[in-house]
């Protein structure tokens, strides 16, 4: 059986948010709902600043707390490892929203807000029909695409191919070979988010290769006083 | 499969305790051997579910009083069923029987131990263990919510308001199950049967301990009698509906919790069923079954309590608590007390994102650890 | 295990009807990325856009970014113009009446005819979006301008994207190696370039190919820890405006440590040519009686005599060794004249103590040792490349800076190989084929007028004689798919527009420019019209398809141009008897060697590779085929730039009088702000305005989807500067200087250098807390050296708004 996983290479990621948008388009999410987000992190103080972009999305945990917290059995883990939040069964209780340590479940209990004029056929006829209102919603690894043999939308859209999706059980899959290759070539081993939460996420990350050192005297920019005013 | 499991459970408990001794033909002339006494006190009157009465130390008058009034679980017997003459014959026969302590059956010893007080203590102990495990597990549920990281914002928002939101949510989302009410009234009703039935039983138990600690006989329409019967009935109906749903709903398996779910539903079903059976057995005077059914009841209830932190039972407290945290987070982030939230593209998860960031920094190595970290959402 | 249909997804099963079409197309916004897309269309509504990822060479896949993907929200967005509109109130008042196309198309030609009769047709100016992004539609407008005799201004030089430093050195305004060649680098310097935001589809060549596969050293020079600094090994927070000094300091190290590639200099540069001490001119062969005036001489050390540089090829005989140092005397018309090689002059300049790393360190804020190491790494860890960003160029002395950077790379010969080039991806007005036959019917070109002169109110004294500025000035303006009123220089432009009698805006979104117009014509987006698209970022020619018909009441630029020709001058209509596909056929058949053999049918099936080198390194003809500089700049004929690069080699010495007068014959360092008025110089902060990841210039400013993520205009400010002014994160603040002020919100961040503010480029004014985005920016000033020659968008005046100095205060 398959065990799907997504590996995000932080060396490749440029924090462009293409995944965020591709996901919105694929899943028809309303205002303020982003199944795939990119965390934009500034580390350190000037001048020793580093930037890290951390794309996050549902980790499809093996031991998914959201799933166990759902009173309606609306969250299921398919045998291929994809954790699905069934829109029909969900009653909008909201327990899963808190149960998820990653904050990747979205529940708006008021009516969804949208982007375009309400009579715009694009949104009215095609976008709004994809998700049920007032239900919890989350990333599905684009199960509908995976079922048709396609990669998830965010993977397809990633301009730097920082997202690698595949079956960990298949040693020849893109993801398995990539992990092996990177371990050999760049010595990077995949890590997971919040291992202490014990959720056994399927999503994995590879570290940053760029040093991100900085070099400066650390002086303030001088004010270019006009000639005659310039102090010695 | 599930049916089989149910039957198996029933058989195991029944066979453990219902060792009715065979009645030898020779003793049929004895009054004692033909009386109802035999059922509980055993062929040789060395006890069964009831105490041994061979060579009873009671005087005849005391003996007669017990027979007429009943004692504890022992039902009263009136003169039409057993005239005084017969009672005296039985008394005499009993005095003639040898007192052989080796013949006191285990079942009696067990039942001796199962005093109301002991049962209460056992339940208390089980509940304490379950509570301890449950609390430990609840921490494991709550810690990932990163609610601690929300404290600075909560302080700005006002802790009083936070408490109010949580309490309100516990009542509205937890006790009233508002989300189900909004989504599906039918489901709410069925879920209510179980929830409120269970709460009714719990209440009845508490009331009983207060007002009828010796479990003495009560008038038919006493609230202490009506409440558990009605609640139990609701619970039984509800749990049977759930079992029906478990059979009919092909999406009931979420791939992770199925065993815990079954455990809970089945234990709950058996607890209620055994409760009712106890009542029924008592009512129908099937005194030889009373102890069997009672112990079966006690066992499943105990199992229900002990497994609660692992079975589906835990949703009863985990869901309301998690839901109330969700409401709290919603309210705090909607209030805009933290600029970070205001800028957050999808409000309400900033604190969790911070947890993720810390985790990643740890994984990225020494260059990234222990640095000032700021989470930006744009530009 | 089955899940219910309510798995979130596009099509619940069973699949929807056959109305679903998938169309392979490309977009053509001003990022010039030209990414291929697959559009899913249901009932003539675009429901999904995904990168096509069908480029035959796998390395290019996928292309596309968040902006392209979110086009759906502009196509169907709330600001979409649905009908022609005619202004009824004052300009900018926002009072309109909806008009039919007939009405609008009668209104405009009437006014145009009036302008023609009163002032001459050249008083009507066409200004459209950077033209290299769509050869057919924008070409149709230029064709119309050519046919009717309109004036034509290119957005490219008006935006200031024209990098005159390149034109002055290599004869063409930008050299762009295709981004794939970044992957070969061992050292890359991103000089104020933020490719992770501005070249998103190409960033993989840095992260994946260069860094991950090649372990390349990436150095980012930027006062701001930009998004790109994330992928850099070394971030150098330079003092704004001192880039030129850093570049010359790097040259100083190269020369000092003898890392110069002399063979490269001999062949490809003018550094050996001799400069006359008497008049500062280059010594010509005719001066010493060795040949023509168009030939130049160098001193050959092998034969110890003068050598005439060949002017047919860069190829040199083997047995020469040019002298780069030493002043010699030659006899010219009987006089002894001292001549010195250009290199010697440069060395004199560069080896001055002011360019030593130690002295440069205190001004640039980059330690001397870092400068030394950077120069060494660049020279020795090859291949090495430089990518220059607009922050360097949008300055009055941006040309000097770029010349200095080019000098640095040239000294070590970092040109012309995979992974070796100096590139500036500043806007792709360079066409990948010759579009002349479509754009310029019968060779007739519109009257090219740089927009600058219109903005500053007329020609300068030093204006190039080739520019025929209309004698009555500009009386009518037609802006198409451009938003010049949301740029750093839109203040004076607005005033200039007030003097016009007709201002037509053609666009799909009701931009601030449209709001100021007299007539607004609704045009389709890239997804609703056929076009031919090329880019310098990758070598594929692609066809843009009409994925859905023009939406609402919009009409293509092609159709509008044709209708205007019909109404203004029906006799010219015979030259407009085309369809879009005819135009593509025409361009393919006359487009030159790059498109030889490419057919329309091939293009309809997908991307087609141009006949170019793989990978293109920029200036391939020069470095591979030894052709003289400058390379051809389409759509101008071969040799159009000859006059401003007379030696046919990379020129680091400009002999023209204008350069001599400014003292800029060789690249020197000029403090960036010295040309500002005293009051401006006193302002304590400098401001940078990088292109935002959320926009292509100002397009997508109003995209509701992207606004959901990019919620507010912010000014990035260092905590040190913020604390001094009592500003906290999220406060509403005012940026001000002597020009004006505007208000937005503060983002206090460690990722910016103290003394520098950063506001993303081109926020529409309506999103600001108060005021107008352009208010503080330094206004148009034309550097006389930029007027020495004129070739639209190749040699023309630039912009310098990044020289602005400001201060910021908290708004209570």
Structure description:
The complex is a heterotrimer of chains A (232), B (379) and C (812). Chain A has helices spanning 18-27, 65-69, 95-99, 121-127, 143-146, 153-157, 174-185; strands at 4-9, 37-43, 50-56, 75-77, 83-85, 106-107, 136-137, 163-167, 204-206, 213-214. With 232 residues, chain A is α+β, with helices and mostly antiparallel strands. Chain A has a three-stranded mixed beta sheet. A two-stranded antiparallel sheet of chain A has the order 2-3. In chain A, strands 4-5 form a two-stranded antiparallel sheet. In chain A, strand 2 (37-43) and strand 3 (50-56) form a beta hairpin. Chain A is globular, with a radius of gyration of 22 Å. The N and C termini of chain A lie far apart (76 Å). The model of chain A is unreliable at 227-232 (pLDDT under 50). Chain B has 379 residues and is an all-alpha fold. The longest helix of chain B is centred in the middle third of the chain and has 27 residues, at 116-142. Helix content of chain B is 67%, strand content 1%. In chain B, helix 4 packs across helix 5, helix 11 (185-211) packs antiparallel against helix 12 and helix 12 (223-248) packs antiparallel against helix 13. Chain C is of the alpha/beta class. In chain C, strand 27 and strand 28 (741-748) form a beta hairpin.
Map the helices and strands.
The complex is a heterotrimer of chains A (232), B (379) and C (812).
Chain A: E1 4-9, H1 18-27, E2 37-43, E3 50-56, H2 65-69, E4 75-77, E5 83-85, H3 95-99, E6 106-107, H4 121-127, E7 136-137, H5 143-146, H6 153-157, E8 163-167, H7 174-185, E9 204-206, E10 213-214
Parallel strand pairs in A: 1-9
Antiparallel strand pairs in A: 1-8, 2-3, 4-5, 6-7
Chain B: H1 2-17, H2 31-34, H3 37-41, H4 60-69, H5 84-96, H6 106-113, H7 116-142, H8 151-157, H9 159-175, H10 178-183, H11 185-211, H12 223-248, H13 258-283, H14 287-307, H15 315-334, H16 339-343, H17 350-364, E1 373-376
Helix pairs in contact in B: 1-14, 4-5, 7-14, 9-15, 11-12, 12-13, 13-14
Chain C: E1 21-26, E2 36-42, E3 45-51, H1 66-69, H2 72-75, E4 85-87, E5 96-98, H3 101-119, E6 124-128, H4 137-148, E7 151-154, H5 155-159, H6 164-170, E8 187-191, H7 195-198, H8 204-214, E9 217-221, E10 234-236, H9 243-256, H10 262-268, E11 274-276, E12 297-300, E13 305-308, E14 328-332, E15 335-341, H11 342-350, H12 357-364, H13 368-380, E16 384-388, H14 390-393, H15 398-411, E17 422-424, H16 436-439, E18 447-448, H17 451-455, E19 476-480, H18 490-498, E20 502-507, H19 512-515, E21 519-522, E22 528-533, E23 540-546, H20 557-568, H21 580-590, H22 600-605, E24 608-609, H23 620-625, H24 657-662, H25 678-681, E25 685-688, H26 704-709, E26 714-717, H27 719-724, E27 732-736, E28 741-748, E29 756-759, E30 770-771, E31 805-810
Parallel strand pairs in C: 6-7, 6-19, 7-18, 8-9, 8-16, 9-10, 16-17, 19-20, 20-21, 25-29, 26-28
Antiparallel strand pairs in C: 1-2, 2-3, 4-5, 4-21, 11-15, 12-13, 14-15, 22-23, 23-24, 25-31, 26-29, 27-28, 27-31, 28-30
């Amino acid at each position: 059986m398959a065990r799907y996983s997504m590996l995000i290479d932080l060396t490749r990621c440029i924090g462009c948010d293409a995944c965020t948008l591709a996901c919105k388009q694929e899943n028809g999410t309303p205002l303020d709902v982003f199944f795939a987000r990119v965390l934009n992190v500034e580390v350190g103080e000037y001048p020793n600043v580093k930037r890290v972009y951390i794309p996050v999305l549902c980790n499809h945990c093996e031991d998914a707390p959201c799933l166990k917290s759902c009173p309606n059995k609306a969250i299921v883990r398919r045998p291929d490892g994809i954790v699905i939040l069934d829109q029909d069964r969900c009653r909008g209780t909201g327990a899963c929203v808190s149960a998820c340590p990653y904050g990747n479940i979205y529940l708006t209990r008021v009516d969804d807000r949208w982007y375009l004029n309400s009579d715009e056929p694009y949104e009215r006829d095609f976008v709004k029909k994809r998700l049920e209102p007032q239900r919890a919603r989350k990333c599905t690894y684009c199960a509908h695409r995976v079922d048709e043999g396609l990669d998830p939308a965010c993977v397809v859209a990633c301009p730097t191919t920082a997202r690698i999706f595949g079956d960990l059980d298949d040693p020849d899959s893109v993801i398995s070979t990539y992990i092996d290759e990177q371990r050999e070539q760049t010595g990077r081993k995949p890590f997971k988010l919040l291992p202490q939460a014990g959720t056994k996420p399927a999503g994995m990350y590879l570290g940053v290769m760029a040093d991100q050192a900085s070099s400066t005297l650390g002086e303030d920019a001088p004010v270019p006083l006009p000639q005659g005013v310039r102090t010695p | 499969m599930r049916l089989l499991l149910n039957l198996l459970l029933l058989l195991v408990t029944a066979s453990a305790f219902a060792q009715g001794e065979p009645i030898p033909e020779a003793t049929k002339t004895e009054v004692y051997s033909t009386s109802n006494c035999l059922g509980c006190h055993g062929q040789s009157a060395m006890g069964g579910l009831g105490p041994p009465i061979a060579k009873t130390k009671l005087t005849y008058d005391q003996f007669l009083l017990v027979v007429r009034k009943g004692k504890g679980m022992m039902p009263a017997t009136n003169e039409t069923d057993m005239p005084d003459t017969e009672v005296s014959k039985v008394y005499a026969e009993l005095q003639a029987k040898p007192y052989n302590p080796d013949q006191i059956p285990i079942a009696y010893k067990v039942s001796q131990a199962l005093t109301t007080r002991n049962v209460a203590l056992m339940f208390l102990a089980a509940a304490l263990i379950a509570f301890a495990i449950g609390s430990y597990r609840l921490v494991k549920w709550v810690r990932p919510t990163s609610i601690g990281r929300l404290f600075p914002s909560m302080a700005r928002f006002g802790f009083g308001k936070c408490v109010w939101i949580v309490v309100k949510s516990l009542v509205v989302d937890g006790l009233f199950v508002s989300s189900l009410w909004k989504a599906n009234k039918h489901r709410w009703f069925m879920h209510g049967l179980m929830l409120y039935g269970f709460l009714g039983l719990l209440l009845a138990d508490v009331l009983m301990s207060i007002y009828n600690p010796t479990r003495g006989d009560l008038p038919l329409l006493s609230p202490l009698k009506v409440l558990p019967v009605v609640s139990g009935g609701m619970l039984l109906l509800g749990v049977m509906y759930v079992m029906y749903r478990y059979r009919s709903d092909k999406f009931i398996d979420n791939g992770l919790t199925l065993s815990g779910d079954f455990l809970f539903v089945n234990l709950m079903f058996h607890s209620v069923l055994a409760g009712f059976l106890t009542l029924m057995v008592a009512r129908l005077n099937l005194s030889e079954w009373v102890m069997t059914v009672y112990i079966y009841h006690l066992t499943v209830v105990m199992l229900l309590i002990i497994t609660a932190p692992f079975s589906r039972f835990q949703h009863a407290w985990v869901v309301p608590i998690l839901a109330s945290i969700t409401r709290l987070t919603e309210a705090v982030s909607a209030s805009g007390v933290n600029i970070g939230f205001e800028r957050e593209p999808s409000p309400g998860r900033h604190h969790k994102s911070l947890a993720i960031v810390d985790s990643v920094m740890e994984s990225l190595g020494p260059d990234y650890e222990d640095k000032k970290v700021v989470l930006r959402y744009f530009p | 295990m089955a899940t219910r249909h309510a798995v979130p997804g596009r099509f619940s099963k069973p699949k929807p009807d056959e109305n679903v079409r998938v169309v392979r197309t490309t977009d053509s916004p001003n990022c010039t990325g030209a990414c291929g897309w697959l559009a899913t269309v249901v009932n003539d509504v675009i429901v999904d856009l995904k990168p096509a990822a069908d480029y035959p060479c796998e390395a290019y896949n996928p292309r596309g970014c968040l902006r392209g993907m979110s086009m759906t929200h502009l196509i169907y967005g709330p600001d979409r113009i649905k009908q022609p509109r005619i202004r009824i109130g004052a300009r900018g008042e926002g009072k309109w009446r909806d008009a039919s196309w007939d009405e609008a198309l009668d209104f405009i030609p009437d006014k145009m005819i009036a302008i023609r009769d009163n002032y001459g047709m050249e008083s009507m100016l066409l200004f459209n979006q950077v033209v290299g992004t769509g050869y057919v539609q924008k070409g149709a407008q230029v064709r119309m301008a050519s046919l009717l005799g309109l004036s034509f201004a290119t957005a490219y030089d008006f935006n200031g994207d024209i990098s005159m430093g390149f034109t002055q050195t290599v004869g063409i305004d930008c050299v762009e190696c295709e981004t794939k060649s970044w992957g070969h680098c061992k050292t890359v310097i991103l000089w104020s370039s933020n490719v992770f935001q501005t070249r998103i589809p190409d960033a993989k060549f840095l992260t994946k190919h260069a860094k991950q596969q090649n372990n390349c050293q990436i150095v980012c020079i930027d006062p701001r820890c930009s998004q790109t600094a994330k992928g850099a090994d070394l971030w150098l927070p330079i003092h704004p405006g001192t880039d030129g000094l850093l570049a010359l300091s790097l040259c100083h190290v190269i020369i000092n440590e003898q890392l110069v590639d002399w063979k490269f200099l001999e062949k490809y540069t003018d550094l050996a040519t001799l400069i006359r001490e008497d008049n500062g001119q280059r010594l010509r062969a005719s001066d010493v009686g060795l040949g023509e005036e168009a030939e130049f001489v160098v001193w050959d050390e092998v034969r110890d005599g003068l050598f005439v540089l060949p002017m047919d090829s860069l190829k040199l005989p083997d047995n020469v060794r040019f002298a780069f140092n030493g002043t010699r005397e030659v006899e010219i018309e009987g006089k002894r004249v001292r001549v010195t090689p250009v290199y010697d002059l440069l060395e004199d300049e560069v080896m001055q103590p002011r360019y030593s790393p130690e002295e440069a360190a205190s001004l640039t804020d980059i330690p001397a040792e870092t400068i030394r190491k950077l120069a060494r790494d660049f020279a020795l860890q090859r291949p090495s490349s430089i990518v220059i960003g607009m922050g360097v160029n949008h300055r009055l002395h941006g040309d000097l800076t770029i010349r200095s950077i080019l000098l640095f790379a040239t000294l070590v010969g970092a040109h012309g190989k995979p992974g070796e080039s100096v590139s500036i991806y500043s806007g792709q007005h360079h066409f990948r084929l010759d579009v002349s036959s479509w754009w310029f019917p019968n060779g007739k070109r519109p009257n090219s007028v740089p927009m600058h002169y219109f903005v500053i109110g007329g020609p300068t004294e030093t204006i190039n004689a080739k520019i025929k500025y209309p004698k009555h000035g500009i009386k009518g303006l037609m802006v198409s798919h451009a938003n010049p009123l949301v740029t750093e220089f839109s203040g004076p432009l607005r005033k200039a527009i007030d003097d016009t009698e007709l201002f037509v805006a053609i666009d799909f979104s009701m931009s601030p420019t449209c709001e100021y117009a007299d007539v607004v014509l609704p045009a389709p987006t890239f997804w609703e019209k056929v076009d031919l698209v090329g880019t310098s970022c990758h070598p594929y020619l692609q066809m843009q398809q009409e994925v859905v018909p023009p939406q609402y009441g919009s009409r293509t630029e092609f159709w509008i141009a044709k209708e205007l020709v019909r109404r203004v001058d029906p006799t010219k209509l015979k030259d407009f008897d085309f369809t879009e596909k005819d135009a593509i056929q025409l361009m393919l058949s006359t487009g030159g060697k790059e498109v030889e053999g490419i057919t329309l049918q091939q293009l309809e099936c997908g991307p087609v590779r141009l006949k170019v080198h793989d990978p293109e390194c920029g200036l391939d003809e020069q470095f591979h085929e030894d052709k003289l500089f400058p390379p051809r700049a389409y759509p101008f004929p071969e040799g159009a730039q000859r006059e401003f690069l007379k030696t046919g080699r990379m020129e680091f010495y400009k002999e023209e009088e204008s350069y001599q007068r400014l003292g800029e014959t060789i690249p020197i360092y000029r403090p960036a702000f010295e040309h500002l008025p005293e009051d401006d110089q006193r302002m304590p902060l400098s401001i940078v305005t990088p292109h935002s990841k959320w926009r292509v210039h100002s397009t997508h400013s109003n995209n509701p989807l992207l606004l959901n993520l990019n919620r507010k205009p912010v000014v990035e400010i260092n905590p040190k500067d913020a604390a001094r002014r009592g500003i906290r994160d999220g406060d509403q603040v005012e940026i001000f200087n002597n020009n004006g002020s505007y208000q937005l919100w503060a983002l206090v961040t460690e990722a910016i250098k103290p003394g520098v503010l950063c506001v993303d480029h081109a926020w529409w004014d309506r999103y600001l807390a108060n005021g107008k985005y352009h208010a503080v920016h330094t206004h148009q000033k034309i550097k006389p050296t930029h007027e020495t020659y004129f070739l639209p968008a190749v040699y023309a005046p630039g912009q310098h708004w990044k020289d602005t100095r400001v201060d910021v205060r908290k708004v209570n």
